[in-house]
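TICKET: design request
STATUS: open
ATTACHED STRUCTURE:
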């Protein structure tokens, strides 16, 4: 009896994994039983997110990270989440064009996924494909996302560690960070740091981090502050035994990925952050956040599919209903409420 796709994936079969990930990306129902079989064997890989504005050099940085992790003996999986073609629905960029050096390495598996128009930059298929790579024995999985924007923060919920990549000379980078990306970064990477303005960007990022830290710090009453100062002066200050672990302070690293400058320090920063995740208990919190995100995505997809089937059965195909809405013959709010009520009931 021939092995199932899931069994072959667990054995490290790249062709089986590629086939399953293609079925996942295409939304084929046949992928679900295979994912269910793989699920108990997941949860071991270290997932790293790489995000940043287009042109920041994320792919070059990912290529260098692969090389460093491979030198350390790690098996590496890469999911490059590319823009979706509005015509074909597939990923526009080829998954091996930017990382040719590793294409023949059996311990490296690189796959491109389309965003499928998701606002967050990550399709639901991304989480499932991370699980496939995890199940097939990848030690490190790098998810490189399409770009940065105020709403594109899904990667922070999917990865254990997230690096936000910025470059000098692109004025929108700092604006994007001010708009909310600051909150998701575990590491800041100032790439192409041989350009003018790199030091200024580092200073701006540091000032923003210090401001955030000042805003988050709880106020301390005068007597408590005085006791702490005196204790520190006498070397007797000890943190409370039940105090929360010290908050992670995102490092800001200057890197020239194309020349492999600073990439080793970035790998060390990821290692330090992973150690902190385990020591602080934050890893389990992030695992729960990722599980919640992926479950809600699965539930949303199932409910939407059910809603569209019911709509077609009772009111006609989506295009026909959309045409009636466009002509003002149907109320989209009332129709949505009606469908939601029937699904809930």
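STATUS: resolved
RESOLUTION: sequence designed for all positions
ATTACHED SEQUENCE:
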């Amino acid at each position: 009896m021939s092995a199932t796709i899931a069994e072959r994936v667990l054995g490290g079969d790249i062709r089986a994994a590629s086939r399953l990930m293609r079925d996942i990306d295409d939304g084929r129902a046949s992928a679900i039983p295979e994912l269910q079989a793989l699920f108990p064997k997941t949860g071991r890989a270290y997932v790293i997110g790489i995000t940043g504005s287009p042109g920041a050099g994320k792919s070059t940085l990912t290529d260098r990270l692969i090389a460093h992790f491979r030198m350390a003996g790690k098996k590496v999986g890469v999911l490059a989440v590319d823009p979706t073609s509005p015509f074909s629905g597939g990923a526009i960029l080829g998954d091996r064009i930017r990382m040719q050096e590793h294409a023949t390495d059996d311990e490296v598996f690189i796959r491109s996924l389309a965003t499928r128009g998701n606002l967050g930059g990550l399709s639901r298929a991304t989480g499932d494909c991370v699980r496939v790579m995890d199940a097939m024995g990848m030690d490190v999985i790098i998810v490189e996302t399409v770009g940065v924007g105020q709403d594109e923060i899904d990667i922070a919920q999917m990865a254990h560690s997230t690096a936000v990549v910025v470059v000098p000379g692109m004025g929108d980078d700092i604006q994007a960070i001010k708009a909310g990306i600051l909150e998701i970064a575990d590491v800041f990477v100032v790439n192409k740091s041989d350009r003018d303005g790199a030091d200024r960007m580092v200073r701006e990022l540091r000032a923003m981090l210090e401001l955030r830290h000042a805003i988050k710090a709880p106020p301390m009453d005068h007597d408590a502050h005085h006791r702490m100062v005196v204790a520190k002066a006498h070397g007797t200050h000890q943190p409370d035994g039940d105090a929360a672990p010290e908050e992670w302070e995102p490092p800001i690293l200057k890197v020239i990925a194309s020349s492999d400058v600073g990439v080793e320090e970035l790998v060390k920063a990821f290692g330090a952050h992973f150690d902190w995740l385990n020591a602080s208990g934050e890893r389990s919190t992030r695992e729960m956040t990722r599980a919640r995100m992926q479950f809600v995505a699965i539930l949303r997809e199932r409910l939407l599919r059910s809603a569209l089937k019911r709509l077609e059965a009772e009111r006609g195909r989506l295009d026909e209903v959309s045409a009636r809405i466009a002509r003002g013959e149907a109320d989209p709010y009332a129709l949505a409420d009606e469908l939601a009520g029937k699904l809930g009931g």
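CLOSING REMARK: The chain has a mean pLDDT of 81. The CA atoms of residues 178 and 224 lie 33 Å apart.
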